[in-house]
Amino acid sequence: MIPELGHFALVLALLLAAAQAVLGLAGGARGRAELLRATGPAVAGQFIFVLVAFAALVVSFVNGDFSVEYVAANSNASLPLFYRITATWGGHEGSLLLWALCLAGWSLAVALCSRRLEPEFRARVLGLLGIIAVGFLLFLLTTSNPFARLWPAAADGRDLNPLLQDFALAIHPPLLYLGYVGFAVAFAFACAALLAGRLDAQWAKWTRPWTLAAWICLTLGIALGSWWAYYELGWGGWWFWDPVENASLMPWLAGTALIHSLAVTEKRGLFVNWTLLLAVAAFSLSLLGTFLVRSGVLISVHAFATDPARGLFILGFLAVVIGGALGLFAWRAPRAAAGGGFAVTSRESFLLFNNALLVVALALVLLGTLYPLFLDALELGKISVGPPYFEAVFLVPMLPLVLLLGLGMHAGWKRGGLAGNGPRLAWLGGAALLVAAVIAAAVYGGIRPLATLGLALGLWVMASALLVLLARRLSGARLPATIVGMSIAHFGLGLTTLGIAGVEAFQVERDTALAAGEGAELAGYEFRLIGLRHGLRGPNYVATEAEVAVMDGDRRLATLRPQKRVYDSGGNPMTEAGIAVGAARDLFAALGEDLGGGRWSLRLQYKPLIRGIWLGALLMALGGLIAAADRRYRREAGEGAR
Amino acid sequence: MTPRHRRMVGVAAILAGVGAAALLARLAFEENLLYFFSPSQIAAGEAPVERKFRVGGLVTPGSVQRDPGSLTVRFVVTDNRHSIPVRYSGVLPDLFKEGKGVVANGRLDGQGGFVAEEVLAKHDENYMPPEVADSMHPPQPGGGGG
User: Fold this and answer.
1) Tell me, what DSSP letter sits at residue A117?
2) Is A285:A322 a contact under the CB 8 Å cutoff?
3) Where are the alpha helices (DSSP H) in A197-271?
4) Can you spell out the DSSP letters for B73-123?
5) Which end of chain B is more exposed for a tag (fewer CB within 10 A), N or C?
6) What is the mean pLDDT of residues A393-400?
7) Using CB atoms, which residue from A303, A389, A590 is nearest to B28?
């Protein structure tokens, strides 16, 4: 009964989304008050029914209703309650339903928080969001119905993939989807602005907080995914350049470019066309990501299923969205709206470089991700583009990006100059380079050029971001939330850079075969296998646990307890790494397998500064949050509408 | 800068960026592309002798051998028509299993075998990498051979 209710609610949500699209767009075009008033309730109704459908699916999971095909495929009677709930979005159908719920949630937020927008503009935005919702709900109902029944019902479920039975991965998809779908709002704002023919600073001001909100979610989602891969996949890597990871990185790069170009559009009325294109690109790349992950065209960790009908639907939807938006752009884009000029050292220039470099990075990742698919589709051979490609090409736009960022934060609008901070910045730059060289030589035993450069760039951006706050403080200037947020986010980027440079340059990894009592040397530490315990009982698995002592001379520095788990529902064993966390370095051990002769294989790793990567991402998100909460977005959004 | 200048600088910057990116991408591509070959293609001499590439197929049941207490492991990868022995030293991924799909990066050892630098089985246990699925032949009585 409950699954049927959910199915029915989903159909109602589709009808209401269609109503929202028609009412919103017609209302926006005609300006008729009754149409405009009806749009909001349609949005609320759509949200409620998608929520009901989602709740119905969650209840089916909690009750273990294995007569529902999707539940039977992704859950199991022995699964703990928490993972039974999160299993709702552990597979294809449920994660799309979550997608639809995120979209309905964002739409409702727009409807509630933008009462002070011009009514026609608001109606158009909601109407466009309605079109996207129609596309996704149709997709769900026609190709991926999560409520499809299984006859006869399964006695027990197949279980949630054990890799996904983890806290970080349970909340990673919702955050990621909130980010993906959040760019739909920026997209709808851009298209509504094109339809209305009002492409000005006001439009940028309305769009900025929404874009930031989506970007924050995406940043956190990606960081969580990276953290999960590090401790759960058992390899100790934090980024694999897997196509699915790239699928989330590409919208992030486009979104990052977008929040920066929106700043120029808001402040100076420049880059309008470019900003529009970026808004279209960010959302299109989110859809592309969904297509890549959900169509099964990829060889990757996440590609769990293959179904051509689904791929074709998303591809068609993608074509409609991108084609429609670009058509609209060609038709309505402002004809060379002459903005004012700006100097080479102005902030506009730096933001232009920022955008150019981010787009180059995006293009390189896109090329590496899609090229193998094209070759394969054209039957020109099967290739894979490995991490070395991405690592090499990604640095090229990123190094100048980070270098220029340290200057750009201080540049003034229009006429340029560094607001009197030029000499201080020169000192900071020199100091960063010196400190980086000293750290590399003293701590890691060698000044390697690229590693030193990476450390120096990280320190440079962190110092420069702090100088923004300090210089303003000293001169008694105002310190608006946007500036504070910007500094914190950039400080975070510096920290992430530092972490990446540290771990990529100085990590040490070693596979060893150890018997109890034996030890192996790694990065100056001794990893000693104390012993193994078998048959440890978890909620739905049995584990073998190793005790590994990390010795610094005679002192026991840390004890690592890596596990190998075998889940009750069968299948392969899973590795649970043992990690000793530290600000300066992580010590990592993953348990391999019984090699015979009393020996076990172990993967040992020394990971300097790796925490900086995720801590930096957290700070980026925090900075975004502070900037988005700036009073001027709330106050002046109202003034603009009056 | 006037708008005209700005546009020219902008266009020049974009062209330079795109050009540099294209050049780099080309270089990095040529160095880092890994082609996929099935055991049958290797048997037919299609695989490169000097270069790294990927091989994939099923791990022949019963073929996994290791010297007790050593990290070195040997197994046979088959597409049900031809097969190739693979040697690897290190920790195998969780999803590595006899009778299941596997992809290995590495190179030929010149003696009819393959030395893997990395073994990938990064997928669901019931899922087969598409390139492996495409290259498989129907099982033959007696299996492998050749």
Assistant:
1) S
2) no
3) 201-232, 243-268
4) EEEEEE-SS-EEEEEEESPPPTT--TTSEEEEEEEE-SSS-EEEEEEE--S
5) C
6) 90
7) A389
pLDDT value of position A36: 84
**Which residue's structure tokens are 């980070």?**
A402
Q: What is the pLDDT of residues B23-32, one digit of tens each?
A: 777 777 777 7
How far is the C-alpha of A500 from the C-alpha of A614, rounded, in Å? 10
pLDDT at res. A339: 62
Chain A contact for B71 (CB, 8 A cutoff): yes
Report yes or no on B145 lying in a domain.
no
Full domain range(s) for residue A574 = 508-609
Q: Do B1 and A342 touch (CB under 8 A)?
A: yes
The predicted-structure confidence for A533-559, as pLDDT tens digits, reads as follows 999 998 889 999 999 999 998 999 999
Average pLDDT over residues A571-596: 89
CA–CA gap between residue B131 and residue A631 (Å, rounded): 54
Average pLDDT, chain A: 89
Confidence at B50, pLDDT banded by 50, 70, 90: confident
Identify the CA nearest to A6 among candidates A92, A93, A79, A82: A93
CB-CB under 8 Å, A596 with B68: yes
Q: Is B30 on the interface with A (CB under 8 A)?
A: no
A593 interaction partners in chain B (CB closer than 8 Å): 91-92
Range of the domain at B55: 36-135
Chain position carrying tokens 């991924």: B93
pLDDT digits (tens, 9 = 90+) for A300-318: 433 334 456 777 788 888 8
Residue of B nearest to A382 (CA): B36
Check: CB of residue B24 under 8 Å from CB of residue A381: no
How far apart CA A415 and CA A410 sit, in angstroms, is: 12
**Residue A544, amino acid:** T
- Cβ atoms of residues A298 and A385 within 8 Å: no
Instruction: Show the tokens assigned to A57.
Output: 């699916």
Cross-chain residue pair B66–A595, CB shorter than 8 Å: yes
Q: In this prediction, what percent of chain A has a pLDDT beyond 90?
A: 60
| Identity of the amino acid at A307 | D
User: Are residues B18 and B62 located together in one domain of the fold?
Assistant: no
What one-letter code names the amino acid at A437?
Answer: A
Residue A450 and residue A592 share a domain: no
> What ipTM score was computed for the predicted complex, to two decimals?
0.78
Q: Answer yes or no: is A174 within a domain.
A: no
User: Which tokens sit at A424?
Assistant: 């201080």
**Are residues B121 and B74 both part of a single domain?**
yes
The total number of structural domains that make up chain B: 2
- CA dist B132 and A255 (Å) reads 36
Q: What is the pLDDT of residues A562-582, one digit of tens each?
A: 999 988 877 778 888 999 999
